[in-house]
């Protein structure tokens, strides 16, 4: 272990970020790296249980999922749309930069004091903006990392002439006229959504002693680090011919032995008995329709309830509903009329159900999509919040899903989408091709190689 660089691993405080970063943290530790994680106070036990040292973010930047409504009550008073979105980006991701930066500096300083002469590399999760000032000259007290590698666990949002503006889920341009049209849309979107976040970003950089270059703040996580590793295979993201040479793909998250997988409060209890007898064994060869809205959206009328309804009369089908949270329950009127072909679990790790599923019905969360293709399972996707519209569009472009292009599809659209995936082999074939591509990568080797190259001074 003494010969390896020391790792500072940053993570945005939220379950959708912590889950994949926990997997990377454990893989690094199993490889013999000494890892110091940086995130909010709430997640300290999670990372320490993996074997990480920990530095908690203090002050304004110390929050987690369940704090958002109480920490920023004024957000709820804003009308849904551009104003509310802009507020969220400014306060949840940009205004927290000084506190994140201070925590990362503390982690670096502690490591350099304890291990003089050993290089320290920051692995910076892409939505965590607090490490970026280092890459533009901010280093109070002279403490800075010996290298930085961005870690992508969300759909790539890097601006490109080869893609539409990120967010609405528009397809890549196919003509010079469309490229010009998209450039105009991007300019409009930046003015509408990002004026305040961009101004705050530039202001904070100046306050921290960093250089402000006028570039788009949300391209910086891809462009500023010495390297950037997107934790998925290339075929599940739009190609970008103008991406820098420092942008690489790692193929997916590292594969861990089952006994080493991070275990959260949701995964500690026994699996349902029907999982083995009806799903894994599945002696009658039934189609398995798995539906889950993730761990953030709990309005089950969006996808879960309509899926139950449209599959009610489908012969030779089992519907597995995962609610995404311990203690969650379907409404009583749904439970009282639950069809016999439906099985419900409060929480179930994706890796326990996806290998046996015929189709995954989801809202396009990045983690769910990557899990699904890693098991060769095609999807029906319906999402329009956060980055989900974009991920739904990308997955359909890759051939792995039917995109319903809304967060609340009609029953007819949902039924047609599920039937199409179950009957058209092209979706399964596309997923298996991506699955094979993922299998050709060894993600932890990719990460380790890039760490070594950055420390050796090879930045490009």
Question: Summed up, what is this model?
Answer:
With 460 residues, the protein is of the alpha/beta class. It has 18 helices and 13 strands. The chain folds into two domains: 262 residues, Rossmann fold (3-Layer(aba) Sandwich), CATH 3.40.50; 175 residues, Glycogen Phosphorylase B (Rossmann fold).
**Structural class by secondary-structure content:** alpha/beta
Structural domain count: 2
Rg estimate, integer Å: 22 Å
**Could you name the CATH class of the largest domain?**
Alpha Beta
Q: End-to-end span in angstroms?
A: 26 Å
Task: Name the beta content range.
Answer: 5-15%
At the fold tier of CATH, the topology name of the largest domain is Rossmann fold
Question: Spans with pLDDT under 50 lasting ≥5 residues?
Answer: none
Total helical elements: 18
Name the strands of the widest sheet in spatial order.
3-2-1-4-5-6-7
> How many E strands?
13
- Helical residue percent band: 25-40%
Instruction: Assign the CATH superfamily of the largest domain.
Output: Glycogen Phosphorylase B
- Assign the CATH architecture of the largest domain: 3-Layer(aba) Sandwich
Largest sheet: 7 strands, parallel
Name the shape in a single word: globular
**Overall average pLDDT:** 94
InterPro entries: EryCIII-like_C (IPR010610), UDP_glucos_trans (IPR002213)
GO molecular function, one term: hexosyltransferase activity
Protein name: UDP-glucuronosyltransferase 2A3
Pfam families: EryCIII-like_C
Would you write up a description of this structure?
The mean pLDDT is 94. Helix content is 39%, strand content 13%. The protein is globular, with a radius of gyration of 22 Å. The protein has two domains: 6-252 and 441-455, Glycogen Phosphorylase B (Rossmann fold); 265-439, Rossmann fold (3-Layer(aba) Sandwich). The protein is α/β, with parallel strands linked by helices and 460 residues long. It has helices at 15-30, 44-50, 68-71, 73-77, 82-94, 97-114, 176-193, 195-207, 220-223, 273-280, 304-310, 332-335, 350-353, 366-374, 388-397, 411-423, 425-439, 443-455, and strands at residues 6-10, 35-39, 53-56, 120-125, 147-152, 227-230, 247-249, 287-292, 317-322, 342-345, 359-362, 379-381, 401-403. The strands form two sheets. It has a seven-stranded parallel β-sheet, with helices on both faces. A six-stranded parallel β-sheet has the order 10-9-8-11-12-13, sandwiched between helices. Keywords: Transferase. InterPro entries: EryCIII-like_C, UDP_glucos_trans. It comes from Apodospora peruviana. Residues 334-442 form the Erythromycin biosynthesis protein CIII-like C-terminal domain.
């Amino acid at each position: 272990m003494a010969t390896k660089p020391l790792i500072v691993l940053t993570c945005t405080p939220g379950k959708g970020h912590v889950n994949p970063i926990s997997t990377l943290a454990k893989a690094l530790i199993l490889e013999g790296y000494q890892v110091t994680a940086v995130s909010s106070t709430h997640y300290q036990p999670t990372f320490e249980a993996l074997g990480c040292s920990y530095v908690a973010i203090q002050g304004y930047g110390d929050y987690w999922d369940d704090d958002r409504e109480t920490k920023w009550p004024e957000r709820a008073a804003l009308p849904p749309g551009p104003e509310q979105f802009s507020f969220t980006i400014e306060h949840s991701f940009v205004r927290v930069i000084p506190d994140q930066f201070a925590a990362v500096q503390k982690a670096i300083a502690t490591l350099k004091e304890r291990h003089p002469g050993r290089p320290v590399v920051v692995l910076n999760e892409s939505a965590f903006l607090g490490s970026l000032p280092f890459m533009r000259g901010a280093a109070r007290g002279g403490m800075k990392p010996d290298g930085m590698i961005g870690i992508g666990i969300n759909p790539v949002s890097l601006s490109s002439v080869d893609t539409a503006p990120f967010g609405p889920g528009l397809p890549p341009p196919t003509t010079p006229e469309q490229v010009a049209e998209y450039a105009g849309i991007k300019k409009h979107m930046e003015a509408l959504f990002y004026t305040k976040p961009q101004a705050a970003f530039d202001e904070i950089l100046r306050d921290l002693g960093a250089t402000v270059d006028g570039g788009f703040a949300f391209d910086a996580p891809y462009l500023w680090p010495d390297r950037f590793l997107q934790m998925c295979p290339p075929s599940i993201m739009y190609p970008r011919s103008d991406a820098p040479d420092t942008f690489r793909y790692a193929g997916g998250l590292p594969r861990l032995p089952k006994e080493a997988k991070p275990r959260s409060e949701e995964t500690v209890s026994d699996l349902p008995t029907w999982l083995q007898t009806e799903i894994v064994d599945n002696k009658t060869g039934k189609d398995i329709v798995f539906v889950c809205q993730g761990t953030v959206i709990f309005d089950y009328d969006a996808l879960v309830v309509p899926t139950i309804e449209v599959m009610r009369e489908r012969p030779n089908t089992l519907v597995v509903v995962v609610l995404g949270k311990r203690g969650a329950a379907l409404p009583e009127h749904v439970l009282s009329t639950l069809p016999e072909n439906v099985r419900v679990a409060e929480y179930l790790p994706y890796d326990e159900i996806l290998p046996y599923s015929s189709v995954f019905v989801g809202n396009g969360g990045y983690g769910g999509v990557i899990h699904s293709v890693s098991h060769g399972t095609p999807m029906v996707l319906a999402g329009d919040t956060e980055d989900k519209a974009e991920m739904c569009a990308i997955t359909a472009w890759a051939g792995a899903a039917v995109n319903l292009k809304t967060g609340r599809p009609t029953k007819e659209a949902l039924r047609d989408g599920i039937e199409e995936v179950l009957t058209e082999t092209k979706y399964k074939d596309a997923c298996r091709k991506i699955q094979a591509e993922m299998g050709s990568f060894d993600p932890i080797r990719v990460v380790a190689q890039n760490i070594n190259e950055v420390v050796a001074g090879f930045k490009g």
